[in-house]
Amino acid sequence: MDAAAKTVMERCDRLGNISEDDDALTRPFGSGAMREVEKVVAGWMRDAGMSVRRDPIRNLVGRYEGTGEKTLILGSHLDTVRDAGKYDGQLGVLVALASVQRLQDRGELLPFAVEVVAFADEEGLRFGTTYLGSSVYAGAFDGKRLELEDPDGVTLRDAVRDFGGNPDALEEGGRGGGDLLGYCEVHIEQGPVLEALDLPVGMVTAINGQSRIQVTFTGEAGHAGTVPIERRKDSLCAAAEFVLEAESVCKKEPGAVATVGEISVSPGASNVIPGEAHLSLDLRHPDDATRGRLRDHLEKRARETATSRGGRHNWQVRQETPAVRMDRRLSGMLGEAVQGSGTTVHELPSGAGHDAAQMSALTSVAMLFVRCKEGVSHNPAESVKEKDVGVVIEVMSRFLDTLAEDMEAGVAPYEAKGETA
Ligand code: HGY
Ligand code: MN
Ligand code: MN
């Protein structure tokens, strides 16, 4: 497995240099960097004996045929956040590719086909929503999102067309799931648990739900030197009060996290009181009802804060994604493969979102986490050990072999949806 792990690490380095920015890894949906990285990965898919196609949103889909009519899907995403690390998403695609490469190297056909999907957009960097790629592939795309605009005012519809996709086919362009055994995703943990336990891999039990919201505070632009402080309608002060409110609400609610990752003011001059403040709110919790309660409380506080300062607010929910539990049976088989590789099975929830959350609309899903250094992610310091990549490749290979043995022994393959973990 070491040679395979070395190849995966080298490929992560290679893809990590394909970016829209000269001095950082930033690969938004529909960018030239995404076009380039897609071409490189398509070549590696063909080298591994796969046929390659692109779906209407330009997800890249490699297929390695088997002897039966069922299909197992592996994969993750190729897009990144701004100034990203080079393992979030792409590690999962490349480990999936390594699992198929091993089959081809052995000249082996399984009693099922394996599809490797490299999703075109999971992070939502450009349009502020998540799972654009997997929502199309899973047949769960909401056509209303076509009118979403990026910061330059380009609609998703035009961006998909410019990227060579077909915006009119996104709603019914899903893969369909009648032949599926399930979907398994390998991803870095993006947290500190596995490192603290000194474990190379972990089994994911569930993925937290998330709300992505755009909030605007509107006050009144004015002269920084002449408007007395008590007469101001400073939209940035309102926003600042709101940001701290979001933080304090989460400090009182175990498991809740809120993040304001983007903020901008207009007109944006050092001697002008901000007339408008725009911010993104990312709110997450393992329990959907709790998340909804926190969201509604924060909307109420945004309104109160704005009006108390003589201004107003706008609250646009860009996307709500429910919490998703992993499929128990598929996870159980992955767990056996972890044990078979000589590693203790540790189960943990995911605070980060993953395409598996969206793919659960189509089929049974399971995830494996790989330890990452100090849990750092969404940061160029993101890193994994080659040794751990070797472990996860071995686990995935054992998993495929076990699934094949079960199929050959006539153990009923999975229905499209199993019960959850
Ligand atoms: O935001 C997330 O949880 C993931 O990285 N898209
Ligand atoms: Mn991410
Ligand atoms: Mn990711």
Bound molecules: (2S)-amino(hydroxy)ethanoic acid, manganese (II) ion
Indicate the overall shape: elongated
| Strand content bin | 15-25%
Amino-to-carboxy terminus distance: 29 Å
Mean pLDDT: 95
Kindly describe this structure.
It is a single chain. With 421 residues, the protein is of the alpha+beta class. Helices cover 34% and strands 22% of the residues. The chain has helices spanning 2-16, 32-47, 90-105, 132-137, 156-162, 193-197, 235-251, 288-308, 328-340, 355-359, 386-408; strands at 51-54, 60-64, 71-77, 113-119, 180-188, 201-207, 209-218, 222-223, 257-259, 263-266, 272-273, 276-285, 312-321, 324-325, 347-350, 365-370. Strands 1, 2, 3, 4, 5, 6, 14, 15 and 16 form a 9-stranded mixed sheet that branches. Strands 7, 9, 10, 12 and 13 form a 5-stranded antiparallel sheet that branches. It starts with a helix and ends in a 13-residue tail after the last helix. The model is unreliable at 415-419 (pLDDT under 50). The structure holds (2S)-amino(hydroxy)ethanoic acid (HGY) and manganese (II) ion (2 copies). One manganese (II) ion is lined by residues 81, 88, 123, 378.
